[in-house]
Amino acid sequence: MEYEAVIGLETHVQLRTKSKMWCGCANEFGADPNTRVCPVCLGLPGVLPVANAEALELTVLTGYLLQCAIPRFAKFDRKNYFYPDSAKNYQVTQYDKPSTQGGHVDFEFEGGISRVRITRAHLEEDVGKSTHFDRHSGVDFNRGGVPLLEIVSEPDITSADMACAYLNALKDILTYGQISDCDMEKGMVRCDVNASIRPKGETRLGAKIEIKNMNSFSGVRRALEYEIPRQIQVLSQGGTLRQETRRWDDVAEITEPMRSKEDAHDYRYFPEPDLMPFQPEDAWLEKVRARVVELPLARKQRFITQFQLPPSDAEVFKNDVALGDFFSRAAQGARHPKAVANWVINNLRAQLSESGRALSDLAFPPAHLQELVELVESGKISSKIAQEVFVDLFATGQSPASIVEQKGLSQVSDSGAIEVFCDEVMAANPRSVDDFRAGKAAALNFLKGQVMKLSKGKVNPAVAGEILERKLKA
Fold first, then answer.
1. Please, what's the largest Cα pairwise distance for the chain?
2. Which of 153, 216, 419, 439 has the least CB density, counted as fewest CB within 10 Å?
3. Domain range for 445
4. CB atoms within 10 A of CB 49
5. Do 208 and 305 fall within a single domain?
6. CA–CA gap between residue 237 and residue 235 (Å, rounded)
7. Cα–Cα dist 77/398, whole Å
């Protein structure tokens, strides 16, 4: 029997706020353990939480970016469970009335556009971090109470590769929208994987196996590459799969059982009594909507259609927003945007990397790059001279035209002057002249190169080629 995988992901993302969800403690990574805590985030008796306004905005902004519906009534709930990293023995989250519902993520996959539907993106608080030593464990509550967004997908994912493509697309959207820095090394993005299998052609879902707390996309891939064949093997050998929670052992590269999967009633959800329901008004929603940005996939498609760029160039400008914005200004109204893109991708990036400078430190405006391209396309300077001009442009900020004029770099197009160079080259290279006349067409390119060398790159190469060919055939 052939089986197919059915995968859903629960992605937990720390929001980009200065303070925690319910208190004024700093949302800051790397501080000494338990130095960013207070009675509120530790859940001490008598304290009251106050919702972080920016976290509420970022949650609804995420909803807009993911094409979600924004309900006019949302509330917070207590999810009750005991675990050492939860100081309060419950987590404040959103259960049946979340801040966003529905939505989807579109992304490139296997040569086309795939879509994974979003069930919801709800706001909650992060827990502390447990560290296990040889003979004891320690808990750092600095992370406890940090605003956390849980983005739950529908089970639309069918492979490990598709899961990683979806996660990367989601990460791009969240960083574009400045929802989160998404630094996985700092634990800002974590993922729970829900995986099951079923016979191909069936619509009924199989037993859901949850793999907890994946902290890298590569880990998600490897866990699924192990878990899906494991489930298939169990069924193929006549076994039974039951709903359970497993952990991923990154060293052994296997999943291991943790516990039978809890259902919602096991958490004894009830409305958080210390927080009012969240009922956004029109003016507030419009303020959040004004923060919506162009999505990464839409940006890439726009670069392809608006500037006729190949997908590889558009991908560069999708991944580097600042560079793409610079290119957009440089290529505005250009006859050949692709030529401008070449200078940005090949030359400007290299100079920035070599000099250690940022785009914001550039001495010249984007329009100067289009001017340089036009000087080459009009024949006023050669491509070789343009490289020299660009170095000066980067260093001084002067316009390309003024650099060419000051240094006398204009390309020689006068046929009489070029004939003199051609005659000298033909006289100095009689063997190549004979080779061309014997039918070796490549000899013409060699001779043209020698003309460019003799003229220090100032001769118009097209005119030089025409004159050489005419003289050689005479």
1. 102
2. 439
3. 415-473
4. 19
5. no
6. 5
7. 61
The count of structural domains within the chain is: 3
Three-class SS state of 16? coil
16 with 144, same domain?
yes
Per-residue pLDDT tens over the stretch 323-349: 999 999 999 999 999 999 999 999 999
Distance CA 49, CA 175 (A): 28
Both 49 and 188 in one domain: the answer is: yes
Tell me the CATH number at 464.
1.10.10.410
- Domain end (from 228, 258, 289): 289
How many Å apart are CA 116 and CA 119, to the nearest integer?
10
- The pair of structure tokens assigned to 118 is 């979003």
For the stretch 388-431, pLDDT in tens is 999 999 999 999 999 998 887 776 666 787 888 888 989 999 99
147-153 and 189-199 beta bridge pairing: unpaired
Return the pLDDT at 264.
63
CB burial readout 272-282, b (16+ within 10 A) else e: beebeebebee
Measure the CA dihedral 401/403/405/410, to 10°: -80
- Listed residue (147, 141, 127, 145) closest to 14, CA to CA: 147
